[in-house]
Specification:
Elements (H helix, E strand, L loop, with lengths): L2 H12 L3 E2 L3 H5 L8 H6 L5 E5 L5 H9 L4 E6 L2 H13 L5 E5 L14 E7 L17 H10 E11 L2 H13 L4 E5 L9 H5 L3 H8 L5 E6 L8
Parallel strand pairs: 1-4, 2-3, 2-5, 3-4, 5-6
Antiparallel strand pairs: 6-8, 7-8
Helix pairs in contact: 1-5
The structure holds S-adenosylmethionine.
Length: about 230
Amino acid sequence: MTKRKLDRFAENETFEHFFQPNYYELSKGFALKGKWKKDFFGNDNPVVLELGCGKGEFTVGLAQRYPQKNFIGVDIKGARMWRGAKTALEENLKNVAFVRTRIQLIEHFFTSGEVSEIWITFPDPQPQKPRIRKRLTSPGFLDRYRKICSRNCIIHLKTDNTMFFDYTLETIKDQNLPLYFHTYDVDKNPGSDDVVTINTYYEMLFREQGEKIKYLRFGLFGEGVGE
Ligand SMILES: C[S@@+](CC[C@H](N)C(=O)[O-])C[C@H]1O[C@@H](n2cnc3c(N)ncnc32)[C@H](O)[C@@H]1O
């Protein structure tokens, strides 16, 4: 492991807005579960997650734009997350936190109804058949999100990957969920200002390769109304 990575891991340990409990700590119960608003953010504002946040540009960008919401970036790669955590500290953003964990364990961190919105930004497409269940919009993951989300929670997906995008559209249809918006090219039809004005690290890489950026948003509950 490089010294830079080790330094970042060490600095993550010092951040008060960076959480990375181990399995033993989680098994005893995560202290902020059900208490993020009151005990960490000190307000009653909605909690928004970015899953697979990488360097956290989107989490930090939204937090700057929406001080009346609380944002939590989630990823397993601590050295990447350090970037977002450091920026949030440098910019004195009080409405940002980061959780380092496998998203498979997300129910250990939030209680029923605690999350109001989820962004999934440029997820790994997991193209191989045996790995379909690892896609962050697969039925197994949607079930996990239902356990922590409010009834009117909105899930946003941004991706360059057409296969992943179509897979998600099919899953929404199969589950008869409300699809509120979708576009195969955000530059022609963005659907919301946030979608085009905050670019993540991977988004920039894919844009350089000439990929079109796709975006959709949907609900986790109820009948397939929308669009
Ligand atoms: C392609 S990167 C995108 C990062 C960032 N959203 C961006 O757009 O620059 C996908 C990220 O998802 C994270 N990830 C994928 N599956 C995960 C899982 N099951 N649990 C936690 N993180 C995961 C990876 O560690 C990686 O940082």
